[in-house]
Amino acid sequence: MGELDHDDLHQSCHEACGVFGIFGPGEDVARITFFGLYALQHRGQESAGIVTADGERLTSHMRMGLVAQVFTEEDLLGLRGHIAIGHTRYSTTGSSKIYNAQPIIVRSPTCELAVAHNGNLVNASALREELVEQGCQFRTTTDTEVIARLFCEGPGTHLVDRIRLAMSRLQGAYSLVMTTKDQLLAVRDPLGVRPLCLGRLNSAWIVASESCALATVGAEYIREVAPGEIVKIDERGIESIQAVTSERQATCLFEYIYFARPDSVLNNRLVYQARQEMGRELAREHPADADIVIGVPDSAVPGAIGYAEESGIPYREGLVKNRYIGRTFIQPDQRLRDIGIHLKFNPLPEVLAGQRVVVVDDSIVRGTTKRPIVRLLRDAGAREVHVRIHAPPMVHPCYLGVDTARRSELVAARMSVPEICEYLGADSLGYLSLEGLVRAVRVAGGSLCNGCFTGNYPVPVQLDLDKFAFEQARLGEREGGERKARVSMV
Ligand code: AMP
């Protein structure tokens, strides 16, 4: 395999992913996991993998690419057992590499464990150094392997004891689905940053990042995995262990704004309804004198409908999205991003011509897609373009599992709102306030992570530290010794 380069390391800390697991004797667990991952594709498009367990051994299959590209019928038939876990991995920049694909499998003389992780640790570097000093040999650059090795090789006789002990040391976001040869485990960090829920399919138990995956496989939603909880499922049944308690929760606001699917339930609230409410709040905070409201498909459509309902301005479809184009966000340079927008959206001139248009979008990160969208609308004849965003200005990077670019790349960290408006070429620009957003989500503000809007993170992070410094340090470490990347995780 290729050598580690900067891009690889840069990439390895972007862990906004989808996880799925099933304990289902008598069920085709690999196939169900495949469909579960399909429903979680939006959480990660870089690689996908499934590990199954049959009571005696683990079997794995993982590749780069979309879920539908990664597994053939034959692959699924080869994944035998009554337990399966799966993972879709997300990364937004640089080249894609297989060695960071998940689930990862670690083995020690007493433990064999496969781990699928959604989140990001902020103290992985220190924990990793400690483990290396103790003789641990790492095969990847991911914080997931730090977690897996702590769980597998840390102090404690039983796996659950080791997990509990390790959880008191892990800082950051981790929603984990894991399997040994005969046990399915689900673990959520004490802050509950990333989602994780539990469902039932006949007599099988399912764990998934989002409830939309439960619905897809015909499972019944039971509840969320609680922050700080370990759920253990084996032939004796299901056991819940409240391993760590925290004074506060910190559910990621960006899950509500953009990341989660609208048909998922977070904190007992349908994401679709929360987004509609964001649109209503936005209309109250930033009204516009306009003829039509459109949304940037697909993520901003619920918000645009909410805006239209509240303002009384009719909702129309002004942009049609080509659903077979990947996220333009991932294009590596400005020129390609600009081309990307035209590949992704076509305007409907018959709807837009001569109209004063409110265009609602979920967020502005770099600002690079919004600018061409405004131009597209004007070229299609829109007389005025009023941009409305159903999130506050994003001024800080996320250190807890969503790749929202470096601070220097965030347009709101560099420009004021009027400057951004001018940069976009819009007639007006309005962002939803944090208060309005929290009202729409209907979770107490103190139980949400708003770090990307305020810089106040629920765990200590070094704001002045480039978030890729950890990876770069590891590059240095590797340059001193072996530089070969590992492919096989098994
Ligand atoms: P831009 O305005 O060019 O910064 O693009 C922001 C748009 O990209 C948003 O409206 C979202 O639809 C989408 N987006 C936001 N955050 C992310 C992310 N972390 N990864 C991929 N796409 C994102």
Quickly describe the structure.
By secondary structure, the protein is of the alpha+beta class. Strand 15 and strand 16 (269-270) form a beta hairpin.
Description:
This protein has 490 residues and is α+β, with helices and mostly antiparallel strands. It has 2 domains: 9-247, 4-Layer Sandwich (Glutamine Phosphoribosylpyrophosphate, subunit 1, domain 1); 265-454, Rossmann fold, CATH 3.40.50.2020. The strands form 6 sheets. The protein has a 7-stranded antiparallel β-sheet. It has a 6-stranded antiparallel β-sheet with strand order 5-6-7-8-12-13. A hairpin with a 2-residue loop joins strand 12 and strand 13 (237-242). Helix 5 (124-133) crosses helix 6 and helix 10 runs antiparallel to helix 17. It binds adenosine monophosphate.
What is the topology?
Elements: H1 6-11, E1 18-23, H2 29-39, E2 47-53, E3 58-64, H3 67-70, H4 73-78, E4 83-89, E5 104-108, E6 111-121, H5 124-133, H6 143-153, H7 159-167, E7 172-179, E8 184-188, E9 197-201, E10 204-208, H8 211-216, E11 220-224, E12 229-234, E13 237-242, E14 251-252, H9 253-259, E15 265-266, E16 269-270, H10 271-285, E17 292-295, H11 301-311, E18 319-321, H12 334-344, E19 345-347, H13 349-352, E20 356-361, H14 370-379, E21 384-389, H15 411-414, H16 417-424, E22 428-431, H17 434-441, E23 448-449, H18 451-454, H19 469-480
Parallel strand pairs: 14-23, 17-20, 20-21, 21-22
Antiparallel strand pairs: 1-4, 1-10, 2-3, 2-4, 5-6, 6-7, 7-8, 8-12, 9-10, 9-11, 12-13, 15-16, 18-19
Helix pairs in contact: 5-6, 6-7, 10-11, 10-17
Bound molecules: adenosine monophosphate (AMP).
